[in-house]
């Protein structure tokens, strides 16, 4: 079975790749990297460091925390330091658009200027089949020669704020924002360690001694002692009831906390051994077998399993920074099996500011057995009451997603207004359909066509906010595995669009999105309408209802096919999702892609000239995905009793959504509202026409048409009951 | 032997208290954490009040005592400092496991560290004008550590050397001997004890003096002219400055000095005397029925020195004041006070409640409890008869030698002849001595194996005596270990004294021959992990400064070590060169010590991280000599070598 699946996968991949040929093949996409690249001391035996420093004759082992390597050149018998190379994932696992990191090898010269950047592996679908990988390489090239300590951001340069701008890749904003953060974080991590970047000096805390002798539980409750737990599954081990490791830690320089934890004499003893700007923290292990001390310090003198981070600064501990912690004085302290006091010897650390205690673990991939670094941390910030002047005000830099929202606030506002407007218009559809007649549908169409044009131009081409089946697949996976809001918030328009879609699907069915707001759908139908109006009507055709009813299931097969594939390989599913022409049409542009993609779009749009929305009706997996919940829409379109025999609407239904019994299939309906126009048109809707003629014959007044689609009866009150039984 | 002296428990005084203790111990076991000792004191009115703070730690769960075997990675809870006897060293043990952690060479060369080989250690040990060591044998008996506020402060420990009358100081940050002082005009330097605070200045609440007792009488001056003049035979009591290690003053006394004790208020020091007779043979020495405990009034002695009331002997410049009985008859001006103690007493120990000194009788089966306040009263002229300071003199068993305390009012005295430890209650003994014949002061007896000498309990010599562990140094092990020929190890036995009954929990063989020891809590020490480069004037701070520097035939070789290499892969000398080789270990990693051995030149020494040491020798043998690292340091340890080439 497994082999069969593999073979199948290979076939599909080959087919997909054949489709993607000739030159679109990305060479770093899901590239296979040797497992050792993450762990081997000789990083450069496995990573192409030579590409960063072609003149280097030797590279050091991984050193420092986080790791980096030094590049040396041999000249005249002397070894000269050329610069530093850092593997991005040694510093940060910040995910890009795909939810996985772009693994990048970054070089800094000895002065701290970016000397080279090489993407080793990425999982960005857009770089696979959308934007050529060269775009990201070009983006990265912008760093070369720039100083790591500069404020480099994606976007406009703003000299007055000392911001150096980088040109983004349109359509891959999230990727480049993430990439920028990786570049700057990794660069700074090295820069700080090797002295290129000045250490940040934080104002030292001035403690308030409350002399209140809290016990262990009080210390935990007030946050002066924090807990860090790592579960076995987090490090790739089988789930178990015991944590992999459970640690408690706290900051000892504050007198109340220090004395409570150590006892007064041991505390003053410890403080007596610290110099100005040195800090003590304690750690005890209450569960787990793994040591937090490890044995790395035996060989290299550095504890390789624990670390403290404050903002961008990482503080590691040497063997000389460790003292025995013999006992915890605070009443109620749990029994512990390992303990220690670590000293931070740097005045860039301040007890007044928040920091993280980091446990540096190894994650073992159970399938492949490969090990990767995995860091687990817990935040710590002394309480206001222990600090003179309370906690200092901290400006926390916005998360990448938040930055996107802020920079595009105006467009987001317009987009939200558009969505609300469309919903409002549709909510008032009765007024529009009543104002329309079969001959003159402009009251409806004026709004709808405006919606189309805005969604094609503004939503599609400008905002690139074409929803896609890949998002559905991503959610599906996120629901199954790990839901991260950041992943979805990074694209505000898609995010908002989906809120609109979900709400409207359950209110009215998928038609409001598909028929009114989908950029590609709009383009498709707009073409059909234009073609019809410029005299191509005689070439336009519909499939027979019979053929349609068979073909319409195809899109469900496409959807479930993609969903199934995505379980095995998200990457492959992303490739196969090219069945949607959206990326080519809007995100990347026909001209930027290889001809097969352009041809595919051309065929789809070409067909649209002759038949209404062929893609939407038969292929669109997103439509299929939205069609299913549309079954449960709250408000459907109206029907009359006569509809079961009268096929007037069905004949005119562009979506072929009205069956021979007159029922509307809301899974197929695009909410064009043509049938609703008819519903109140007393010159077009056969039952209504009949009633009008009867009234005219009888000389009765033509009362307004009621909600039920008939004239409001003019009979006296007692007769109303009879009328209602009709 | 003396089982008849053992009283059934129910016959012991104050059964209420004991039963309470039993209950409390159970409560402690269940983790409720009640303070056993503290509560006990409330019950036990006659018990000294000062025991209260010391007793508080007794609240720790009893389970902690149950296991003396440390699990892998588990650390001992106490340090033990042991004297090494005639190995001449100072030993550090982890307690209660009894594992030996370290031997600090002091008076005798040590091949491992190069003590007596390096110029630095030779300078501490003392050399003859030709540079050779003055002494290569030593006999250490007693070690005690520096105090602050009545507890150890982790600065220094001192140890005596009996053969050549020397005192060594051990720095407790590096655990090395940093000074050795020879006491002038003294033989048989035996007892030693640091003071606990200054007798006058209340701001000096820590050790500034170390008192040293001379056991053997020698003619003063001892110049070969007066061996037969019995009156010239004297013994001196010496005071050494704790910081400078210079001898501050000495006191000329009648009789000899055996062991030394000091009071917690800093005012008194005392030595027990087994030879008030000034006898030359043991028969003479045993002749008097009562010997003495001689008290020294420190403030008055120092005032006398200040006032110039001293003389000097021989070439020594140390002021010697007169502490003889004849010169100190007026208590109001007396420098010394004699309290008599029966028959060749051995050991004088200060109780942790700061009230009593206890002398054990040795040839008398008694212990004598001397109340310090009464001695001070005598000095003030308020007590006519110094012997009225004796609060109790009670029978314990045969051959009482040394006494330890549990901080709960009990004393533990070794009975050398009975091979026993007797646990007795001091307050009950005082009551008994006062005439209450029903006062049962003996609480418990325990057989030990065999013939115990020194005894000490955890924190016993501090105000924080915690009554958890008792160690006893048995002089004979006989059948207690696998036979190894005629010479036997000594047997250091460990006793759990946290309960009513003493529980013997372990035998530890130990290389002869420790005498005294102290046991104290591990958190009182803060040893450093590596040396400070700047502490060594000869330090080579940069490998680039290595090399061979020649001035005529005086050659200095400077080498640094960084695993796995010495900075010089080879160095060249000429036959006849007078070489000084300096080695700095530039490794900064904890525990990364390097050794340096030179074949054929009788050189080996080690340098710990950031330490510098030097050796001097004459290049008298031509050839190539592979100097190598003797202390395992690295995977390439065997490759860590340097060629010394001595050109003919």
> What is the molecular shape of chain A?
elongated
The CATH H-level superfamily of the domain at 1-66 and 396-528 in chain B is YVTN repeat-like/Quinoprotein amine dehydrogenase
In percent, how helical is the residue content of chain B?
10-25%
How many distinct beta strands of chain B?
40
How many strands, what sense, and barrel or not for the largest sheet of chain B? 6 strands, mixed
Class of the domain at 1-66 and 396-528 in chain B, according to the CATH hierarchy? Answer: Mainly Beta
DSSP strand content of chain B = 35-45%
Overall shape of chain B: it is globular
State the secondary-structure class of chain B: mainly beta
Oligomeric state of shown chains: heterodimer
Biggest sheet record of chain A: 5 strands, antiparallel
User: Can you tell me the CATH topology of the domain at 1-66 and 396-528 in chain B?
Assistant: Methylamine Dehydrogenase, Chain H
What does this structure look like?
The complex is a heterodimer of chains A (726) and B (648). Chain A is an alpha+beta fold. Chain A has four domains: 2-194, no CATH class; 216-386, no CATH class; 410-638, no CATH class; 686-724, no CATH class. In chain A, the strands form four sheets. Chain A has a five-stranded antiparallel sheet. The longest helix of chain A is centred in the N-terminal third of the chain and has 22 residues, at 173-194. Chain B is mainly β. Among the domains of chain B are: 1-66 and 396-528, YVTN repeat-like/Quinoprotein amine dehydrogenase (Methylamine Dehydrogenase, Chain H, 7 Propeller); 533-647, Immunoglobulin-like (Sandwich), CATH 2.60.40.420. In chain B, 10% of the residues lie in helices and 38% in strands. Chain B is built from nine helices and 40 strands. In chain B, strands 8, 9, 10, 11, 12 and 16 form a six-stranded mixed sheet that branches. In chain B, helix 1 (15-29) runs antiparallel to helix 2. The model of chain B is unreliable at 1-65 (pLDDT under 50). At the A-B interface, helix 9 of A face loops of B.
